[in-house]
Design goal:
With about 375 residues, this protein is mostly beta strands. It has 1 helix and 28 strands. The longest helix is centred in the C-terminal third of the chain and has 5 residues, at about 355-360.
């Protein structure tokens, strides 16, 4: 797993995201637009709902062009347009091109040949698949659990087939060698099982669940040679949010997996963010250490200070952890608004007091609450 950080702004249009892992290779197309489109369709018609992110309201008066029958529709005051035909009735690609009144565009696609859509056979079933983890050794047991139930009550699912193949999961691929296959009974919609890996090579593998010839769902996992760390290291903070000039302690605890502490462990730590520095510490007889930092004011209203620590000497497996706190420079928030009407000007200033109680006790309903 990983995180792809995009540029702060991207122009409207289509982009390709490319991923490579060993010999595996895949691509995904992204569309950047301020006009999100939602489509609900049945066998007679389709409802197209268009919104405008830039205004936070429905995109009224937008044009919806149906490339299949070359018809044009207009959205109403709620951003809704109705297409009086069944979408995806024929094999191929459906395409609706949406154009806002100011010329911004968004294109909605449906490719019936891929099977990734609301009319795929798998969508006739409620289904779910979960593995006990995503990283395994070559000869581990892969434990899996899932749910499979037909949306039509008269067709109960009595069993599914778990199929193990190599490589990333792609709907349209059916030419892979099957490494293992197992029939699993379904009881009241749920199933569970285990596959013993046959000393596989390191790489990426896919577990797929079939009901008959219908692919219900799939997930992938990695096989690697790795060593379990000898002990664990955890970092905690007393608060999630603080004001500048406060002293913030970061508590480091270490313990072997049976619970006994790791005393005298040399640690290397680092602060990241607007206030950066590094240093060393050592655990006491209880396997703990405390590193404190005095938070200096900064030009931002709020920012984040991150802290990470790891064993100084090399260890078998990664032994590290991190934690962060939000730092607020002021305990008040000012918002000013100026308005001019003919020869008169009005300046409005809203002053609010900032308290951090809800952020620290876990009752905050959002990031800015």
């Amino acid at each position: 797993a990983g995180i792809l950080t995009r540029p702060s702004t991207l122009s409207e249009g289509f982009y390709v995201v490319e991923a490579k892992y060993n010999d595996a290779y895949d691509q995904m197309i992204l569309q950047i637009s301020d006009l999100p489109v939602q489509v609900i369709a049945d066998t007679d018609r389709a409802i197209v709902w268009v919104n405008d992110i830039s205004t936070g309201t429905a995109a009224a008066g937008a044009t919806v062009y149906d490339a299949y029958d070359k018809a044009t529709y207009k959205t109403d005051e709620h951003g809704v347009a109705v297409i009086n035909r069944a979408l995806c009735a024929t094999a191929g690609v459906e395409q609706l091109r949406v154009t806002a009144k100011d010329g911004r565009t968004c294109t909605w696609f449906y490719n019936s040949r891929t099977g990734i859509s609301s009319t795929a056979d798998s969508d006739d079933y409620w289904n779910y698949l979960q593995l006990d983890r995503s990283l395994f050794q070559r000869d581990d047991d892969v434990l899996f659990w899932g749910f499979a139930q037909s949306r039509a009550a008269e067709e109960p699912v009595q069993s599914v087939r778990a199929v193990l193949t190599q490589g990333y999961y792609i709907y349209s691929r059916s030419d892979r060698d099957i490494l293992q296959s197992q029939t699993v009974p379904v009881t009241e919609g749920t199933y569970s099982g285990a596959l013993s890996l046959p000393n596989l090579d390191a790489g990426t593998y896919c577990l797929s669940i079939y009901h008959g010839d219908i692919l219900l769902t799939s997930t992938y996992f990695s096989v690697e040679d790795y060593e379990k760390p000898a002990y664990k290291l955890e970092i905690t903070t007393e608060k999630k949010a603080v004001f500048a000039d406060e002293t913030v302690p970061f508590h480091i605890s270490t313990a072997f997996f049976e619970g006994t502490p790791v005393p005298g462990l040399e640690l290397s730590y680092r602060f990241h963010g607007y206030q950066s520095r590094s240093g060393t510490a050592a655990t006491d007889a209880d396997g703990t250490a405390v590193v404190t930092e005095v938070l200096a004011p900064n030009s931002s209203q709020s920012t984040i200070l991150s802290f990470s620590a790891e064993a100084t000497l090399p260890e078998i497996g990664d032994i590290s952890d991190s934690a962060s706190v939000r730092v607020f420079v002021n305990d008040i928030d000012l918002k000013a608004q100026a308005k001019r009407t003919e020869g008169n000007a009005t300046l409005t200033v809203d002053v609010n007091s900032i308290t951090l109680d809800r952020l620290n006790n876990g009752t905050a309903t959002g990031y800015s609450d």
